[in-house]
Amino acid sequence: MPYLKNNIGPAEGAWLGVSVDTNKRIIYLTSEINDVTTDTLIGSLLLMDDKTNPITLVINSEGGAVYNALAIYDAMKHLCGTVIRTVGIGKVMSAATLLLAAGDPGHRYVTPNCRLMLHMISSGSHGALEDLEKDMGETKRLSKAFQKALRKCSSDEAAEMVNLRDNYFSPQQAIKLGIVDDVATKPIVWTPYPTLNKEELKELVGTMINEEFFLDDGEGEED
């Protein structure tokens, strides 16, 4: 069951690996990508998905499980209809690089001192020979899936790095590889929330708000 609440502060985020501020619509991924961070991150994306106001995903992660990274990628691309900004800070490595690149085009940033890295996928399997052969086949399939996803949101050159050993690169190189759009050398100007008219607001919130909330001035008043 995902650990979900409106806000997850630094104290809770320290062990969850994800902090959430729904008021500012910011999600902080500050740990490895595992089952706990994945469930919390996907749940938070869906919780804040109103298809109107952008969500910002700040990433400082050494990477983690590729299965989990692809699950988050799918949520960002196929489940969440809201614009997602991604900001890389500190370190963005391995599977975390895919999440940075998966932000909406024109909304992917990296800070000047951030360090990025891509490398080949490791199976880490052990056991009987027959199991190792099956695991190797699954690892190859997983690597192709990761490359396909990365290629869609960056470039062929970036995707090919998944076949190599550790490749470290700078923010400027990340731009050339198509992983990010810009280096955040000054405070990012976030797009302000749009102003909704009465009908748009009613469509957005559906039946969650009583119709009386939407009465025009003077409407419904007794003589």
Name the CATH class: Alpha Beta
Number of strands: 9
Count of DSSP-assigned helices: 8
Query: Which structural class best describes the helix and strand composition?
Result: alpha/beta
Question: How many domains is the backbone divided into?
Answer: 1
Query: Largest beta sheet, briefly?
Result: 9 strands, mixed
Helix content: 25-40%
- Per CATH, the superfamily is 2-enoyl-CoA Hydratase, Chain A, domain 1
Which percent range describes the beta-strand content? 15-25%
Name the helix and strand elements from N-terminus to C-terminus, one letter apiece: EHEEHEHEHEEHHEHEH
Q: In terms of per-residue confidence, which ranges show pLDDT below 50 for 5 or more consecutive residues?
A: 1-5, 9-15, 191-198, 204-223
What value does the average pLDDT take?
80
